[in-house]
């Protein structure tokens, strides 16, 4: 409501952000780090040095020194206040001379002094060591501003700008330029990101043609005979979420636009639909035996096991972790309970009460996608035909599976159908193929095929001429534009976080003084924070798995654990990474899957985050208390899952309130 005063915590948050923005110009006036004498040496990396964040110096030597220092002739002394705090060797590389990865504490002005074998200084290059806490500033500002202002674009741009300013000096002018021409352009230039963007836009075009040709309305009318209540509509969304298990992106983009007209007619809030789509997409894909996630997970586990000299089979370890994935499994259970009982609480309850009056969106909401324009409404003179939507959707699903098989089978020796039937572990073979597949290309091909098929069906039945079909396709694509921009900005903020070391800082901050029994809990918290701050579950897995496996093995060995308990701690720790990555992804407003869920359901993004957060927190807390902790002390994970499901059932019936079908 306009003119309503903000709560005090919002004023405090806004005030803190304004103070930060006021300090940035003052920081930019600090004396720039200059070389006292360089003799042709230049420091080319890193651009920002942070306390207790792993970093690595790279120097460009003068022509007469190139490649001459291999073998330990040159060393680097890190000095502060005239005292040497770190001594590192310099090794020749293609870029010049590099140091091993290192970290130092504190903050203030320091010098990097290059010396030769005799200890004579060759160059002294000054730099500023900033507090490691700065690494949390860009994601904190972006997330806080998004929750306060509900303006996602502005919030993401502000977080990117703050990070770019610190990376470049801090220099406000240079940071502002680099935020655009380096960070954002770099996020777009990533080939995988381009494929996701095109996949999203192509799916939007397909939905536009399906809608204009009456295909979507035909599905709505058919399903309307069974989905006659908001509860049945919610159950349909949950069950469909389980069926499309092979990829979270495909799950979200297919189910959201298909069910949205049905749930709108049933007066189910867009926030509820977005939650059900988001609560099934990543959780089911992350635990499926065949999915686009499995290759990344098994590959990372295998590399980490190899690095520590373990002979354990990576795929077997992956399978053994499945019962310990408490958050994804309990998130699926909670989604079913909410859908089946029709009970809600917190912001979701308010959204559902509002939706029963016909307002499926909050007044003033800004949905990420718009499929309601006149250009996309079915032509009045055309009878709705479900086949015009079902065939394109089935084509996308089938083409995705075929594309995954086509791109992944060479890695498994291109097996034939007979090889599959005679294989002793056919599920392992399929898992290897899907794990090695290029999921981004498969999704891109599938979305293009789906759009073409939708156009051909509409044109072949003379529902739309070619010009009308292209206009509908462009209209659907246009409806995805805002979400595409937000995806690019979310990726850009993730790149900023990687460059300034947000994840290593959190890991180092929270992983000191470890007790093996509490290791799964601690790793779940770290993974959740990393995923929440960076908005990427796959990036979180890539960062933490190589660190966690040796950490768990060595910590258990140090405390004298027997092989059985040590293996249980290892499985719990690995599962905590994968579960925490999904949990943080669900809670984060800058997560790509969270953005896609808002996009696919045409929901206001911040409304989706605010309504989903209490449910995600409940499933996460239940997983910690009844899963991570007791299983680390020896309880069977199956008992933990059973107790967790019972606890969630009790919570839903105690906390939840059933909304009448026609709420006033």
In terms of per-residue confidence, which ranges show pLDDT below 50 for 5 or more consecutive residues? Answer: 1-9, 28-37
Mean pLDDT over all positions: 78
Radius of gyration: 27 Å
Based on secondary structure, the structural category is alpha+beta
State the end-to-end distance.
20 Å
Number of helices: 26
Largest sheet: 6 strands, mixed
Helix content: 55-70%
Q: Number of DSSP strands?
A: 12
Keywords: Cell membrane, Membrane, Transmembrane, Transmembrane helix
Main location: membrane
Domain Na+/H+ antiporter NhaC-like C-terminal: 285-624
Pfam family, one: Na_H_antiporter
Topology, please?
Elements: H1 8-28, E1 35-37, E2 42-45, E3 49-50, E4 58-60, E5 75-80, E6 83-89, E7 91-92, E8 97-98, E9 108-115, E10 121-130, H2 137-149, H3 152-167, H4 172-189, H5 191-212, H6 215-223, H7 230-243, H8 248-265, H9 270-287, H10 294-307, H11 314-321, H12 326-341, E11 343-344, H13 346-355, H14 387-408, H15 417-422, H16 426-436, H17 439-460, H18 466-479, H19 481-500, H20 502-510, H21 519-534, H22 537-558, H23 563-587, H24 592-600, H25 605-632, H26 637-655, E12 657-658
Parallel strand pairs: 3-10
Antiparallel strand pairs: 1-10, 2-4, 4-8, 5-6, 5-9, 7-8, 9-10, 11-12
Helix pairs in contact: 1-2, 2-3, 3-4, 3-19, 4-19, 5-17, 5-18, 5-19, 6-8, 6-14, 7-8, 7-9, 7-12, 8-9, 8-24, 9-12, 9-23, 9-24, 9-25, 10-11, 10-16, 10-22, 12-25, 12-26, 13-25, 14-16, 14-17, 17-18, 19-24, 20-21, 21-22, 21-23, 21-25, 22-23, 23-25, 25-26
Subcellular location: Cell membrane
Membrane topology: Multi-pass membrane protein
Transmembrane segments: 6-24, 127-148, 154-175, 196-215, 235-254, 326-346, 387-406, 442-460, 472-494, 514-533, 615-632, 638-656
């Amino acid at each position: 409501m306009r003119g309503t005063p903000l709560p005090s915590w919002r004023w405090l948050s806004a005030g803190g952000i304004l103070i930060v923005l006021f300090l940035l110009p003052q920081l930019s006036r600090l004396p720039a780090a200059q070389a006292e004498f360089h003799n042709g040496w230049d420091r080319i990396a890193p651009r920002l040095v942070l306390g207790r964040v792993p970093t690595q110096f790279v120097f460009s030597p003068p022509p007469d020194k190139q490649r001459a220092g291999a073998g330990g002739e040159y060393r680097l002394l890190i000095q502060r206040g005239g005292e040497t705090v770190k001594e590192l060797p310099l090794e020749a590389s293609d870029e010049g001379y590099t140091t091993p990865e290192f970290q130092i504490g504190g903050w203030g002005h320091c010098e990097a002094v290059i010396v030769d074998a005799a200890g004579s200084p060759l160059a002294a290059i000054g730099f500023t060591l900033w507090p490691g806490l700065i690494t949390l500033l860009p994601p904190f500002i972006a997330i806080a501003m998004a929750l306060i202002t509900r303006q996602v674009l502005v919030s993401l741009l502000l977080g990117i700008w703050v990070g770019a300013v610190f990376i470049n000096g801090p220099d406000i002018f240079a940071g502002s330029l680099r935020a655009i021409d380096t960070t954002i352009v770099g996020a777009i230039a990533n080939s995988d990101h381009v494929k996701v963007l095109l996949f999203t836009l192509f799916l939007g075009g397909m939905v536009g043609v399906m809608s204009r040709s009456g295909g979507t309305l035909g599905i709505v009318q058919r399903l309307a005979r069974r989905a006659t209540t908001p509860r049945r509509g919610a159950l349909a969304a949950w069950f469909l979420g389980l069926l499309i298990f092979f990829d979270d992106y495909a799950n979200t983009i297919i189910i959201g636009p298909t069910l949205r007209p049905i749930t709108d007619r049933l007066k189910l809030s867009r926030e509820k639909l977005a939650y059900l789509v988001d609560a099934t997409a990543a959780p089911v894909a992350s635990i499926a035996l065949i999915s686009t996630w499995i290759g990344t997970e098994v590959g990372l586990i295998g590399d980490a096991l190899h690095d520590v000299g373990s002979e354990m089979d990576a795929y077997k370890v992956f399978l053994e972790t499945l019962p310990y994935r408490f958050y994804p499994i309990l998130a699926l259970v909670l989604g079913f309970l909410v859908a089946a009982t029709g009970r809600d609480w917190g912001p979701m309850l308010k959204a559902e009460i509002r939706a029963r009056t016909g307002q499926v969106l909050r007044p003033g909401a800004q949905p990420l996608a718009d499929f309601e324009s006149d250009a996309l409404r079915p032509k009045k003179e055309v009878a709705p035909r479900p086949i015009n939507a079902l065939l394109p959707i089935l084509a996308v699903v089938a083409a995705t599976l075929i594309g995954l098989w086509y791109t992944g089978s060479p890695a498994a020796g291109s097996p034939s159908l007979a090889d599959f039937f005679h294989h002793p572990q056919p599920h392992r073979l399929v898992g290897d193929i899907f794990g090695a597949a290029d999921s981004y290309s498969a999704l891109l091909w599938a979305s293009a095929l789906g759009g073409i098929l939708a156009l051909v069906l509409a044109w072949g039945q003379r529902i739309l001429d070619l010009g009308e079909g292209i206009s509908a396709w462009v209209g659907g694509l246009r409806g995805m534009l805002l979400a595409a921009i937000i995806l690019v900005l979310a990726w850009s903020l993730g790149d900023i976080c990687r460059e300034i070391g947000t994840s290593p800082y959190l890991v180092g901050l929270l992983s000191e003084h470890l007790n093996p029994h509490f290791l799964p809990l601690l790793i779940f918290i770290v993974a959740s924070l990393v995923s929440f701050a960076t908005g990427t579950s796959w990036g979180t897995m890539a960062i933490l798995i190589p660190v966690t496996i040796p950490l768990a093995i060595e910590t258990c060995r140090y405390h004298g654990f027997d092989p059985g308990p040590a293996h249980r701690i290892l499985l719990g720790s690995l599962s905590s990474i994968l579960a925490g990555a999904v949990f943080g992804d669900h809670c984060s407003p800058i997560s790509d899957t969270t953005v896609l869920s808002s996009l696919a359901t045409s929901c206001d993004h911040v409304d989706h985050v605010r309504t989903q957060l209490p449910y995600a927190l409940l499933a996460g807390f239940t997983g910690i208390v009844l899963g991570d902790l007791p299983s680390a002390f020896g309880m069977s994970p199956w008992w933990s899952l059973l107790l967790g499901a019972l606890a969630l059932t009790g919570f839903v019936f105690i906390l939840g309130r059933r909304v009448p079908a026609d709420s006033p």
